[in-house]
Model the fold of this input.
Amino acid sequence: MSSVDTRPRQSFVTHSATKDCRTSRAPVLAALAALTALGLAVRFASLDVQSYHHDEVITALRVVPGSFGDMLHAVRESESNPPLYYVLTWAWAKLFGTGEVGLRSLTALFGAATVPVGYLVGRQLASRRAGLVLAALIAVNPMLIWYSQEARSYALLVFFGALSLLFFARALDGGRGRDLAFWALASALALCSHYFAVFPVAIEALWLLVALWGRWRVVLPAVGAVGAAGLALLPLANAQNNPNHIGWIENSLLAERFWETAASFLVGETGHVIAEAPRERYALIPLVFVALSLGLIALRGARGERRGAALGLVLGLGVAALTAAAAAVGKDYVVERNLLPALVPLLAVVAIGFALTRARRAGLLLAVALCAYWLAFDIHVTQTPNLQRPDFRTVTDELGPPEDGRRAIVTWKLAADPVRYYLHDRAVRMYGGEERIGEIAVLRKPLATGTVHLPPSFHQVRRVRADRLTLITYISQTPVPIHFDTLQALPTGFGDEAVLLDGSNR
Done:
């Protein structure tokens, strides 16, 4: 007679989740469908409100155009991310174009698809209620919406990172080979989306090796497959290693960048990404809700609920700790968008706190209040230019076509490619030497100060406000030779200037 294993099986699912299984799934599925629809609506409704920013223009102007081989070459030569997003976007652009809605719609879909994955994660870690709360938080979180509306790889990183977390938790729960295989696949896709996926994936892999060592015959192949995917990316990562891509990161203190990351996770990008001072005050109310959620877990959480929350905390804070350790040894890539793999695990912790069995009414009210605040803030961003990417469409409309002859446009480096993209005649970058110039346009901060040193034949003819910038135009009756260094020294208030050339004789 065969024996029956009666030992208790490790599980993150609480008693409340067992009771959930006896109830009808129809209301839960209806709620999840509504939350997914909300996630789609808030992402697609404002896809074209903001113009492209620097990195997005690189995608639209440099990587996507051309053949498939051209795209792969551009990824190797000018990017610092793995190829998965660009492969998908190259095909997507052939169908929907390279305009804001066309390119961003791909990442918006991945961002919205993270909502139902979040439900599955919350259900696995705690209960169906926790799953629905996590789905709601993902649907309206400003940071996730921001990068669901950016033509870059971050939405894919979050989506596949969430899938990896889901199958990691399932594998811990049952040790099934199928879940380990799906974890390996999701983890490999996350690595192919963004190199920073290595941090949560490494934590999960080590955890699986320790927790499921008794099933090493199925664990080792899964971990080995993920390791092989990472090793396959190393030659590309080494080829893309360019200090110019990330040198700007170290211009600010590490502690300051972690602080900005915490604020961004709560209210989205409000600082250096949009060339503005961070608005930490907007994060105070969400921070209070997060603190209340953690307090509920500490005071009223059941054992299984605390274990699920602990898993999310270890992964979320572990990503931060590993990136800080990398920075300490000279690999400093700490910036808020690179830490996005930590966001869904941390939101899972908050969701579990709001969904506790012993705090159902209070937790639900807190979850609704936080979601309402975030949704209101999301709408506020669409109506507030100072909380958006710089509006380069307005800037180039104010620039207009150049007068007769060649024009130099002086601005800060991250604005150069968007200005090029939106100008009708596609200006070229100037890197040195001397050019005969008849018109100079300077895009500067409104309060920027400094002495303008130009040949005496130039005189100021216009000074206007263009979005959050001031546009000053200088004209010379006859074009005169001007050196690149003179143009780059014109005060913009950014301290990191670039020079564009457009007009005749380019």
User: Anything to note?
Assistant: The chain is about 60% helix and 10% strand. The first helix runs from residue 15 to 22. Residues 15-387 form one domain. Residues 46 and 382 are 7 Å apart (CA to CA).
